[in-house]
TrEMBL record:
Annotated signal peptide: none
The UniProt record lists the keyword Zinc: no
Annotated source species: Halosegnis longus
Keyword flag Ligase: no
InterPro entries, sorted: HNH, HNH_nuc, SRA_ScoMcrA
Keyword terms: Endonuclease, Hydrolase, Nuclease
Region (Disordered): 132-151, 159-180
GO molecular function, one term: nucleic acid binding
Protein name: HNH endonuclease
Organism superkingdom: Archaea
UniProt xrefs under CDD domains: HNHc
Length: 268
């Protein structure tokens, strides 16, 4: 079942302190439930030295629970993950970046958990909780790909390139600092141009969404946070597997370079 789109864009970078300033949650915790919003924030990528092992297993994300020493218990943040659906909360997963910044991976849902023996912060072996999380399809993800002829595609391209000003085509979110969502015109154009075929692997979209449209995700080749433009020349339409490969694969950087070379060969 689809959910409403989260107030963050997958692949975009945010300042963690500002997230907590607006939504609440402990600033230093890996699992940070908000007391004011129905959100549970999950952060990973900075705890390898404390016995945490987080990462993708196919489409499933395996997240290690909280607790630096001793056996982990199903209390506090760990309970918040397990019971988020019954509590009416959304799980939002972020990867830690540099200088207090985090990259939004997406919304996930608890599926199951298991125990695994891992070292704690002191190096002692302990029983750790490992949570299996599955991605949640959102209304934003399911934005339909328009069925356009050449004339309509040209019109959509003009709309997309015309939405690249400092303020045009950008939507301010509810955060206290100004962040921007992707331009709807750019997303619509690149999905229409791809015509249901992934620009990374050349394969048809793996499934059709709730509107019976080919499901492809929009990826910025150069991050907006690094000055990348919200422009058709800076985006590609990818299947979920290629999108995850770019962000989490061992060859993600070289794969992105190949995507950039491909984008430069397109006729726009």
């Amino acid at each position: 079942m689809q959910e409403l789109a989260p107030p963050f864009d997958a692949g975009e970078t945010y300042t963690r302190a500002r997230i907590h300033d607006h939504y609440g949650g402990k600033r230093q915790a890996g699992i940070a439930p908000s007391a004011s919003y129905p959100f549970v924030f999950l952060f990973y990528g900075a705890g390898d030295g404390y016995g945490y092992e987080d990462g993708f297993d196919g489409d499933t994300f395996v997240y290690t629970g909280e607790g630096r020493t001793g056996d982990m218990e199903l209390t506090h943040g760990n309970r918040a993950i397990r019971d988020h659906a019954s509590d009416g909360r959304h799980l939002y997963l972020f990867e830690m970046a540099d200088a207090g910044e985090v990259s939004f991976v997406g919304e996930y849902a608890y599926v199951d958990h298991f125990r695994q023996e891992l070292p704690d912060a002191t190096g002692d072996r302990r029983s750790a909780l490992r949570f299996e999380l599955e991605p949640v399809a959102t209304d934003r993800d399911a934005e339909p790909t328009p069925d356009l002829g050449d004339e309509q595609l040209e019109r959509l391209y003009e709309e997309a390139t015309g939405s690249n000003g400092d303020d045009e085509g950008r939507e301010q979110t509810r955060t206290t600092t100004t962040t921007y969502s992707r331009s709807a015109a750019v997303r619509s154009f690149i999905r229409a141009y791809a015509d249901g075929v992934c620009e990374g692997c050349g394969e048809p979209a793996p499934f059709r969404d709730g509107d019976d449209e080919p499901y492809l995700e929009v990826h910025h080749l150069h991050r907006r946070a690094d000055g990348g433009a919200d422009d058709p020349s800076n985006v590609v339409a990818l299947c979920p597997n290629c999108h995850r490969r770019r962000h989490y694969g061992r060859d993600g950087d070289s794969f992105n370079e190949n995507l950039i070379a491909y984008a430069e060969s397109r006729p726009f």
